[in-house]
Amino acid sequence: MKKSIIIVIVLIFGFSVNAQDILGKWKTIDDETGEAKSIVQIYKKDGKVFGKIIEIFNKERRDLPCVKCKGDDYNKPILGLDIIKSMTKDGKYFKNGTIVDPQNGKEYDLRLIVTDEGKLQVRGYIGFFYSTQYWERIQ
C-alpha cells in the first residue's frame, strides 16, 4: 500500500514539474537569421500561460509601440507586451492560445513544447501553414 502511494505521489510530482518546464525566461531566436531578438518571460495567470517581452536587444526598437497590433494591444509599448496569450496544457503541448508578432501585428494560433534538448519549440499557425522558432532558456 505504501509503495502504491509513493508511486502516485512521484507521478503527480513528475507531471506538475513537466507542466512547469515552459515557465521562465526564454531568449527568442529569429528563425530566418538565427539572431537573438528579445527575452520573453513565460508565466502562469488564472490557470493559463502568457508570455511577455521583458528585454529587447536592439536598442533602437526598445521604446517602439506596437502600431500594427490590433485591439487592446494597439500602440502599447512592445517592451512589456504580452505576445503569448491564454495557453492551456493539452497532453504534452501547450495550445489553445495565440502569439502576436509585434513587427507586423499578425496573430497566430500557437503550440508550445519544451524539446528533449531543452529548447522551447514555438510553432505559430494560420490554418495548415506554420512557422517554427526554437527559443533558448535563460537561467
Question: Can you describe this structure in just a few lines?
Answer:
With 139 residues, the chain is mainly β. It has one helix and eight strands, in the order H-E-E-E-E-E-E-E-E.
Q: Could you describe the 3D structure shown?
A:
The chain has 139 residues and is mainly β. It has a single domain (22-138), classed as Lipocalin, CATH 2.40.128.520. The protein has one helix and eight strands. An eight-stranded antiparallel beta barrel has the order 1-2-3-4-5-6-7-8. The longest helix is centred in the N-terminal third of the chain and has 19 residues, at 2-20.
Question: What topology emerges from the helices and strands here?
Answer:
Blueprint: H1 2-20, E1 24-29, E2 36-45, E3 48-56, E4 82-90, E5 93-100, E6 107-114, E7 120-126, E8 129-138
Antiparallel strand pairs: 1-2, 1-8, 2-3, 3-4, 4-5, 5-6, 6-7, 7-8
Pfam families: DUF2147 (PF09917)
Protein name: DUF2147 domain-containing protein
Domain DUF2147: 24-137
Any descriptors?
139 residues, DUF2147 domain-containing protein, globular, Lipocalin, disordered N terminus, 1 helix, 8 strands, mainly beta, eight-stranded antiparallel β-barrel
| Distance between the amino and carboxyl termini | 40 Å
Which regions are unreliable across 5 or more consecutive residues at pLDDT < 50? Answer: 3-19
Rg from Cα: 17 Å
Count of helical stretches: 1
What is the second-level CATH architecture? Beta Barrel
The H-and-E topology, N to C, reads as HEEEEEEEE
**CATH fold label:** Lipocalin
- Percentage of helical residues? 10-25%
Main sheet properties: 8 strands, antiparallel, barrel
Mean of pLDDT: 89
Task: Give the total of beta strands.
Answer: 8
Strand content: over 45%
| Assembly form of the protein | single chain
Q: Give the tally of structural domains.
A: 1
Shape: globular
| CATH level 1 class label | Mainly Beta
What structural class results from the helix and strand content? mainly beta
- Spatially, the strands of the biggest sheet line up as 1-2-3-4-5-6-7-8
